[in-house]
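**Polypeptide and fold**
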Amino acid sequence: MFRPATLSLLLVGLTACSPSEKSPPKAVDNAPPPVAAVSAKPKAIALPGPALAALRADFKAGATDARYFAQAVDLNGDGKNEIVVHVAGPMVCGTGGCNTVVLTPDGDKYRIVADISVNSPPIRAAATSSHGWRDLIVEVGGGGGPSGPVLLRFDGSKYPDDPSDTPAERLPAAPPDAQTLVAPFDSFAQGTLLYGEGQSGAPAG
């Protein structure tokens, strides 16, 4: 039989060991650093002369009101920047969006490795890659079809042309570590005229 005094001492001991009184766990010294936030508003670039020539050849002189939003990024890890260009305007876009073109350096020129139809910004480069090239993510929607981000994988020679069809892959959401290349815009007029003046002739990167 416990005496009252002994029982009181036991209760005090149990209270002192209560989980609520334990010290908070120490921080782990080797915890990975937080992932840096990727800017959602990258600054668009003006196309270098050879890239501009390749893009104009693709869209022809009839698209005099067309504008573009461009960003340089090394997609294949060769140390030279590709250029991702979203071409927009009332005469070159449909209800489902506009075209996104990927240009890669080829000697002193640029060649097209993707002409992706009817899509919208944000245009992103994923952290994943296929055949040595980073996967791209574009938005699709409009025209009565489902909307949302779509993953486009490089097949060894180019990216898929139609983001609404296989082998394009629909995603529930864009991954948080994807790099925004072309941000959404409020008006076509915010882009650079495809057939405007003041284009640079220097290579991008």
Notes: The radius of gyration is 27 Å. The chain has one domain: 49-193. The beta strands are 67-73, 82-88, 98-106, 109-130, 133-142, 145-152, 169-170, 179-182, 192-193. The longest strand covers residues 109-130.
